[in-house]
Amino acid sequence: MCRVRFGVRSDGKISFLWWAELMAGGQTPLQLEQEITKRLASYISEPEVTVIVQDSKSQRINILGMVVRPGTYLLTGSATVLDAIAMAGGFKDFAKQKAIYVCARTPTGRRSEFPLTIKK
Prior knowledge:
alpha+beta; 2 helices; elongated
């Protein structure tokens, strides 16, 4: 049995000696296992592959505006907008809490803005 550990680069790819690169970002561990197994099959008979996520640092959010600590934060688990504001230390005294926008990129790369009222 041979055990090999790989890390996912910041661009979401893994480099292998046998083939150039494999996009790991956006795949579940099971999907990644199947893809690696398929690619290894031509080099190793009956490869057994297990993918275990040890740490996920790929999702970052930027919190800007009238919060105590604006900046970039790691998104862990299923954080809500309210959780994100709390990570940034909460609102400053004169923040317009009725003028909050969540900005996100669509899969095509287009930017979308969604107005949000925290009090609701």
